[in-house]
């Protein structure tokens, strides 16, 4: 974008210099010549302002589009993270249930073995 700006600036300066030289060499009176130069410079300034406004609008539109794309990607990543979180929570719940079942099964086996050992000791 900097190269385009430099080219546009160089063209405008060149056009202004060429026009000024052309007007200076034209066979007109001083006041007419100054008026023509002033008109040309004013037109050039207006065209430059218009071009600057168009460029600023283009930059604004581009930045808005870029921000929208970034928001969309960010929201997609958040959605994916949320899915992973939900999946992890489900696996944690499964692990808790498995651990609880294993504990109860171990407790039951231990109690059964303890009861068997107690019976054996009392019958001996």
TrEMBL record:
InterPro entries xref list: Desiccation-related_membrane, YtxH
UniProt-listed PANTHER family: GENERAL STRESS PROTEIN
Entry protein name: YtxH domain-containing protein
Native source organism of the sequence: Mucilaginibacter galii
């Amino acid at each position: 974008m900097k190269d385009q700006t430099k080219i546009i600036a160089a063209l405008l300066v060149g056009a202004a210099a060429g026009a000024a030289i052309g007007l200076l060499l034209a066979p007109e009176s001083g006041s007419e010549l100054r008026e023509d130069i002033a008109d040309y410079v004013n037109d050039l300034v207006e065209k430059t302002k218009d071009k600057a406004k168009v460029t600023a609008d283009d930059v604004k539109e581009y930045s808005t589009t870029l921000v929208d794309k970034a928001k969309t990607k960010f929201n997609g990543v958040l959605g994916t993270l949320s899915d992973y979180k939900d999946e992890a929570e489900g696996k944690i719940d499964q692990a808790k249930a498995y651990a609880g079942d294993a504990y109860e099964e171990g407790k039951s086996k231990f109690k059964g073995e303890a009861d068997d050992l107690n019976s054996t000791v009392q019958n001996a």
